[in-house]
Amino acid sequence: MRSNENCQKIKLLKLYEMLRQETDEEHPMRTNDICQRLEQMGISCERRTLAVDIQTLNDFGFEVRSRRVGKGKGHFIEDRSFSLPELKVLIDAAQASNTITESKSDALIDKIAELGGSHRSALLKRNTVRFNTIKHTNESIYQTIDLLEKALRTNKKVEIVYFHLDENGGKIYHTEGSKHIVEPISMIYDNNEYYLTC
Prior knowledge:
Helix content: 40-55%
CATH class of the largest domain: Mainly Alpha
Mean pLDDT: 83
Number of strands: 9
Low-confidence stretches: none
Structural class: alpha+beta
Order of helices and strands: HHEHHEEHHHHEEEEEE
Radius of gyration: 24 Å
């Protein structure tokens, strides 16, 4: 059970998180709705203290904007790291890439869309175009990229075994499965493929 004191400590965090995810210039959240949502989380909030909390966020550079909504006031986050067209380009790139699997594309698209907030997220995902792309089946692609990037950062050598997949997904090793120890220089993304220069 969370104490009321602990809930108050995370009040600003939860307030900013809610505004960032659920509001924009076209969808401000009314003062009463914010107070009610925070109360549902077990965080006490009154209209006058909310004004102080929003001012505190603004004082620290979080840019919460306010405007009239009906007879009351609505609050929203206007500035975002990415514009709608930028997010659309990133989503299309994730969808079109044949380097990552279908499931990883879908997960990445969800993460990119969330950067625009809940209202824009729904719009971005609804307008996603499905490209006729043959996707890789390598579910460990992120781990492989991370491993190679780490080797590049720390100037470490890596061990590589060359193979390709047969029609059943089985590995057919090149050079009888012998291991090659290489010193990575860079990773290059070209023509929808990653290449490691050594």
